[in-house]
Write a structure and sequence with these properties.
Blueprint (H helix, E strand, L loop, with lengths): L12 H11 L1 H6 L2 E6 L2 E6 L6 E3 L4 E2 L1 H19 L5 E11 L9 E10 L3 E9 L8 E10 L25 E2 L7 H6 L2 E5 L2 E7 L6 E3 L4 E2 L1 H19 L9 E9 L8 E9 L4 E9 L8 E8 L4
Antiparallel strand pairs: 1-2, 2-6, 3-4, 5-8, 5-14, 6-7, 7-8, 9-10, 10-11, 11-15, 12-13, 14-17, 15-16, 16-17
Helix pairs in contact: 3-5
Length: 305
């Protein structure tokens, strides 16, 4: 979500974007840079870092880093389209991965808001790497004009006894250290469940916030967590895949409610397991699995013998 109002008439668009970039903790931590900005069109760059690598063996950027950049760029494109006071919340984000991204090179995302109605903004984006005209990914996103921007009380809703997730006795790293630097950056851990697949947890950190006013986690962080959980689920639930890593073909996430500044949990299920392509879904929640904060789905290209 873009946390503050759109630029006022006559305000410099580039300066507005730079200022918003500074106040969003995750954007500031990731080092995102505004490379160009005009009404309804914004381009952002994500400098190359070892942190964004998802597969050191093949030197590929984790697709979650692409979603984080795309979500931010699309939100800024929506924000610069508006002249009235207001804010934008991501409704959904869909990404088609056309080719892998080199972990040793920067990423650039160019977003364009095609239409801004009274309630919804429709945005598309393309991701490339400098020095190449090849499109890495295509993105479609919709944003809703937020009705209010007030800080949420930390207490549970009235009538709710509080968190329903029991304390986990065993906490293990989601992957061995160094296997995926991006997963290490998020700090994802897993909790083995009797007679069920692993439960994954994203520990809360201040630098993962995308909306400091509510506050709420960055939508791109939730997307990266969801993609990670789906990939780990495929590997864990189908042992023959332990020697290979599924590759994301496409990914979509629906944001159902703001993710508050607390730990986030997720579990995935396999909808279809194919020899070449599989379909996986995941649900993300915080204090109550019956009240998810986001739902994700994606097709995965299975590793071949």
């Amino acid at each position: 979500m873009i946390p503050l109002q759109g630029p006022t008439p006559g305000q410099d668009i580039q300066a507005w974007c730079d200022r918003r970039m500074e106040i969003i903790p995750f954007s500031r931590t990731s080092g995102m840079i505004v490379t160009s900005a005009e009404p309804g069109r914004v381009s952002l760059a994500l400098p190359a870092r070892p942190t964004w690598c998802g597969d050191p063996v093949r030197n590929r950027i984790h697709t979650g880093a692409l979603c984080a950049l795309a979500d931010t760029a699309c939100g800024f494109a929506a924000g610069t389209s508006a002249s009235e006071l207001g804010a934008f919340a991501t409704l959904d984000l869909r990404t088609d991965y056309l080719r892998s991204a080199d972990a040793g090179r920067d990423l650039v995302c160019s977003a364009h808001c095609h239409r801004l109605s009274r309630s919804v903004a429709f945005v598309t984006a393309q991701l490339r790497q400098p020095g190449s005209d090849d499109v890495i990914a295509l993105v479609n996103a919709t944003f809703m004009r937020a009705a209010r921007q007030t800080r949420r009380a930390p207490s549970s809703p009235e009538g709710d006894p509080g968190p329903r997730m029991p304390p986990q006795a065993i906490s293990l790293p989601a992957l061995p250290a160094g296997r995926s630097p991006y997963v290490d950056f998020l700090g994802v851990v897993q909790h083995p469940q009797p007679n069920a697949g692993p439960l994954y947890r994203l520990p809360f950190r201040e630098d993962l916030i995308g909306n400091p006013r509510l506050p709420a986690l960055h939508g791109g962080v939730l997307a990266g967590f969801g993609e990670t959980v789906m990939m780990l689920h495929l590997v864990a639930s189908h042992p023959p895949l332990s020697k290979g890593v599924p590759k994301a073909v496409d990914f979509s996430i629906d944001y159902l409610r703001p993710a508050r500044p607390m730990d986030t949990y997720a579990q995935a299920i396999t909808i279809r397991l194919g020899n070449r392509v599989s379909l996986v879904q995941a649900s993300l929640w915080q204090d109550d699995p019956q009240r998810p904060v986001a739902a994700t789905r994606g097709h995965w290209l299975m590793p071949q013998p």
